[in-house]
Amino acid sequence: MRRKIYLTCILLFFALAKIGFAAGETAKLRWTPESIQQRLKGRVVNDLGQPISGVTVSAKDGRSLGVTNQEGIFEIAGVNIGDTLSFSYIGYVPNEMLISNFETLQVVMTSQQGNIDEVVVVGYGTQRRSEMTGSISSVKSSDLEKVAAPSFTSAIQGKVPGVTINQTTGAPGGASSVRIRGVGTTGGNQPLYVIDGFPVGGSNIAINGSTDNIDGMSIVNPNDIESIEILKDAAAASIYGARAANGVILITTKRGKEGVTSADLHAYTGFQNLWRQPKFLNAEQFATLANELYQNSNMATNPEWENPSSFGQGTNWIDEVFRTAPMYNVDLSLTGGNQKIRNALSLGYRDQQGTLMETWNKRYTGRANVDLTATDRLNFGGSLAFSYIQGKGQRNEDFRLGIFNLAQQFYPTLGREDVVSGSSAFYSTQGDNPYLRAKSMENYLNNLRLYGNAFGEFEIMEGLKFKSSIGLDFLSNRGTTWEPKVQRGFYSNPQAVLSERQEQGLNWLIENTLSYNKTFDRHNLSLIVGQTAQKNTNDWISITAREFQNETIRVINTSSESERRGTGTGSMYTLASYLGRANYSFDNKYLFSASIRRDGSSNFGPSYKWGNFPSISAGWNISEESFFNADGAINSLKVRASWGQLGNDAIGAFGYSSTFGLGRVADNYILGTDQRLITGAGMIRPGNSDLKWETSEQWNFGVDATFLNGGGYLTAEYYVKDTRDMLVSLPVSLEAGFESAPSVNGGRIRNSGFELLVGYGGGNEFQYDVSVNLSTLKNEVLSLGAGNPISGPVVGFTSMNSSYTEVGLPIGYFRGYVVEGIYQSDEEVDKTFQPNASAGDFKFRDVNGDNVLSDEDRVMLGSPWPKLTYGMNIDLSYKNFDLNLMFQGVSGNDIFHVNKFSTYPIKYFGGSGVINASADVLDRWTSENGGNTVPILKYTDLNGNYANLSSFYIEDGSYLRLRNFTLGYTLPQGLFENTNMLKRLRVYTSIQNLFTFTKYSGFDPEIGDTNPLASGVDNGVYPMPRTYMFGVKVGF
Amino acid sequence: MKYIHNTFLFFTTLLCLACSDDFLSLSPKDTLIEDEFFLNISDAEAALTGVYATLQKEEAFSNVRDAADIEWAISGDMYEMDGSANRIELHSLALPSTNTILRDVYSAAYQGISRANVVIAKVVGMEEGEEETKNQIIAQAKFIRALFYYRLVTYFGGVPLITEPLDANSDLQIPRATAEAVWQQIENDLNEAKDLLPTTWTGNDVGRVTSGACKALLNKAYLWQEKFDDVIAISESLFEEEVYTLLPDYRSIFMEENENNAEILFSTQFREGVDAEGNNLVKRTAPRGAPAEFTGGAAWSNFVPQQHWVDAHEKDGSGRIIDKRYWAAIIGPGERHQDMSAFMMPDNVPAGWSHSGYIMTKYWQKPTLNNSGVNAPVIRFAEILLNYAEALNERDRTEESIVQVNKVRDRAGLADLPLTLSKTETLDAIFKERRMEFIWEPTGGFSDLNRRGRFLDFIEAERPNFPSLNVNQKPWLQTQPILFPIPRDAWDRNKALEQNPHYTF
């Protein structure tokens, strides 16, 4: 029914457009003055082709002739051929133009350093920066070009204050976690992504059977991006209402421009390797320490390791599974257009091998953007993009069988193709040779995304426009995992397993907006109202089959019929909204803006379906005042403030009603003489009829300034962001027996911080632009619904919670005992306090002094959230050379190095036997030498040296990284004057992660997770590579 | 101007039309919401199946956490092979409240109770369905609820007593009830259930709770509370049913092809396969590192019978064990597997297979590629006989008691005990029989000894590593009965909980 109404709407729109076309013709006649030949019409655009409104057009004598309207169009009278017009506008270099005829003028104005008045894409429109009252950071294509990265998220890392980006894996095409102004919730905390006005799902793409995630936003080729706008405060983001609480990232793709035809080819190739390799015990050291462990435990030692020195260095398993991995990338883009039609087409291909063996990622992208000016009043446009991502991944972040984890644990005494075959008492019987394992496991991803939108825009009367657009986003995701039948020493997979998972999703959006822009005298007014509806459906099926007739034929059909199992399910989501915004400015000095969005989401029950999200903001361009001397040290100055409310509905569906699962493994039972499977049901989650929006209320105060003759620029902001009614799956009492916790609105979290961007640029032959950005973050839980703290997920194989959340402290902090050192003798042990401790064990701190080791002795050990994040960007160019250096760093955060749980004790954590360990274990406590860092080597750990979360696991996570170094050379223009083909040629070399300063002892300090309750937990994260690249960019 | 007017009118209408609430009111595709469930008997049956399903967890009644990790490793007759921290904590009687095995057992019990509570509350109010069918559904749920509460009260003492479904708005800070209150609830549930359920099920219903199972659990509940007269009465009521009996052959009780036999009062049902409808019993019992042609997929030998337990078997003059139960359920150095004669334990058993040299074969009957289908016995008729014997003996009917014990001994090929044994000797004999009869079953180990306050004496006499257990430095072992700590995770979420004496959170 709903769908029909929309189809009718669209049909009506097109019908109407026809009427409008005809009406427009008449209207035009009516509005055109008689004296047309004495008038001159023109259009002013910036160097990106976007219109600039408010540009003053004046005659040579300084007499003002007019200003441009919202479309950048001016119409003036009283000029003659031969006159010179001058164009001026704040933030732009003044321009002059000689009138040679009365044809429409096209004027291009270039912005001054610091882009003080660039045109910025905002939700449902554009705005000049000087008029903006909200907090929006922009990254332009020219910035993205400097970092040849697979996804724009890695290219903007460290560039934007207030935005913390962490790569969550170094896997090729790897995922990242993006957080805008801290984490305000224990639930969904990633921003909303909007591509050309179409909100799309940006969640990371999992490779079935692997822990390697692909960046969900890598569906957008960075080469296609014109600009990225990050809406940080409520004034900017509240127009996206119910989904904007975590901020909004708008991506605008490149569109064709009138009169500009170009073809560009961008290709690069390079290679990646590990930038750092922590040391592990070599074969001799391992055998020595393993023997010591058994001796300390009064157990027999392994005769195979009797002569440690006979093993020498042995095998370095990190070297065996890591490699220098190549990457290639080619992008081709074509743009062109005339007054009627403008196109941009692009194709891209990228092939990235992973530094870890048997991992790779290939991406094919394509995009077509078309804009059509049907009449003066009617525009059409649309875009269609696809991305096809293929990948191969490995299960890594799995203590027991992850390739990367295994490489740290496997026996240096064995060779590359060796399997464990010694006495099963001394080896981890479920461990596997990481090299052979990686070779045999095949986990593939085939992800197709097809998305685009089409719009029509009709100008009903001057300044009043109706725009209707539809968007579609189709997803097909295929995951294949294969493991052959193998017997590798103690590891066996008795049946070959093939699992095929097919997911399909469709997301559609309809939007209708009516906008009105009017400039009269010194008043500038723009209004927009609109309505949108969005629906998302998603289904998947999965079949797992075992036992294959012939293992070279890997299709479900060749498996044993009795060994096939299928599962599948689906989900749906709808969102309906109304929106409105008014911007008013007086004389470019006093700026006001108010917006509201009303959203209804299917995720909520009947009484709380709808929520309202208002915002108001104001700004004052002080430098426009007559008393301000713009020629002084400060050239422009603006202050602004905003308040607003945003929502978050990322809680999953149907939390308002109790749900019962049917036919899941945990529901079914076996009954009857012939052992029949009986389908059962069980309550999954009790309902909460009171469930409603999470609301984030934000205050923002900002200052924008340019100084030193426009060469210096500065933006400083302070914000307070309070999350109320935080959506949380509260950890309910175990006694309630719920399979999963009900969703409740419980808790209040405050994020506050200061953000600064300051830079200076200039120069002629030698050009420079240096900018520094920094942001501080303070995160504090103000209250929690039921009052009880929330424990983060338990780390696999351990009893340690990845985090703890309680009132008065940051969300998801690390909590545990404080290690005071190591007991040097049995006499030193206080048996009342640590009844199971003996010499060589950790001595924990009795925090409350009651001489009982209890929960009260667990304290805050650290927080995963950096207190300070910063970046520095240096652009230099001299003649044809250009150089970019981008530094990025964080400080004040901690890492829960839980990987030590498997890489320190030597005793295998998952069963009997021993495994290899970090070379740091050479500093272990021994009765001869003592020691205060690593406990005694023992087979059983009764004191819980490793089982207890303690300060032993918490490390400083601060780092400073040279994220990007690029040196480029553009061939002199003169070279190509005689050829019609080549317009521009630039070659460059680029190194990413050239160096990193950190105290962290693991492979890489950049540890991210999209789950705020498991952030900063290193359980064997695929480390970031260092990348060397060489590229060439050719314009035809 | 008319055109503008019309256009406005159109767009205004369009914006208002937009979206009504039915666009936003979806129904889940993969789950049922409350309003659509418990409408008919088939929903009620499905929900009951979901209650049964909670038994299959390793932490529930699958003879892993309870039988192996807790009962037999704490009593010390089985040895933990891995040195894994949580097992060692139990095996060495350290018992911190952070122990994950205790936590998981606690939490699995409440998951079963929660599902049973929903069925009991919802089916009563259902309009549709025959009264008898509904009553039987409720009765089965009550048995399972009682089974989980029995587990909780014997391990932890008085625990929060929850008998109604909870939801997101319930007060979930629930304090502990007294042990007496929990026992009362168990008795009430079982007394109601036993009268509503048939003595046997047939065909596709075999494996469900019978009236006999209810009586058997009542028997256990009375015995724990030392209500010996009630034990005698309920045992005799069960014997009158004439449904259950001792099988002549000990091994056949456990065989997968002989499941739900006359000795089994209640067992958790499993089916071999790749999913959780099977269990890990074969993986956990088969020797780690032994040839895959005998073990199948994985073999972990997590626990192995200890030498001192083997030595406790009755032997003939030549030193050979005469107890048939040993030969039916255990293989030691140089001994052949009962069903796979091609598999013989080496004379020098590799330490990885078994530190003690012994492997239990009750459940490991054949090579098993994935999860095994062998059922996990929960209550057997032999236990009822021995419980009955214990009660008779306590009521000074010692001779009658010895007659019952001898039934169990006869099957094991052991000589009858003389009817002249004293009351104390008889009690000792009953406990000896339990120890030899129920290895790696959820009865016969720690809880039995603890029930009668015999645990510390037993380990002092039997566990060779007794001195290293430092029992005197563990005050929590000095209470009667010994209680496990309330898990810290439970207290983390429910601050109304109080800890048992001598433990901290």
Structural summary, described in words:
The complex is a heterodimer of chains A (1036) and B (505). Chain A is built from nine helices and 58 strands. In chain A, helix 7 packs antiparallel against helix 8. Chain A is mainly β and 1036 residues long. Chain A has four domains: 1-32; 35-111, Immunoglobulin-like (Sandwich); 152-280 and 316-415 and 430-656 and 691-817 and 863-904 and 946-1035, Maltoporin, Chain A; 657-689, no CATH class. Chain A is globular. Chain A has a 22-stranded antiparallel β-barrel. Chain B has helices spanning 2-17, 21-24, 41-53, 65-75, 85-91, 100-124, 131-156, 179-196, 211-224, 228-241, 281-285, 292-295, 307-311, 324-329, 381-394, 398-411, 423-437, 446-451, 455-462, 488-493, and strands at residues 32-33, 78-80, 264-268, 303-305, 330-331, 359-360, 376-380. Chain B is globular, with a radius of gyration of 26 Å. The longest helix of chain B is centred in the first third of the chain and has 26 residues, at 131-156. The mean pLDDT of chain B is 92. Chain B contains 20 helices and seven strands. In chain B, helix 6 (100-124) packs antiparallel against helix 7 (131-156), helix 9 (211-224) packs antiparallel against helix 10 (228-241) and helix 16 (398-411) runs parallel beside helix 17. With 505 residues, chain B is mainly alpha-helical. Among the domains of chain B are: 39-183 and 468-505, Serine Threonine Protein Phosphatase 5, Tetratricopeptide repeat (Alpha Horseshoe), CATH 1.25.40; 275-371, no CATH class. A two-stranded antiparallel sheet of chain B has the order 2-4. Classes of the chains: A mainly beta (1036), B mainly alpha (505). Chains A and B meet through helix 1, strand 29, strand 30, strand 34 and strand 35 of A and helix 1, helix 2, strand 1, helix 3 and helix 5 of B. Strand 34 of chain A pairs antiparallel with strand 1 (32-33) of chain B, so a sheet runs across the interface. Chain B: It is found in: Cell outer membrane. Chain B: Residues 263-503 form the RagB/SusD domain. Chain B: Belongs to the SusD family.
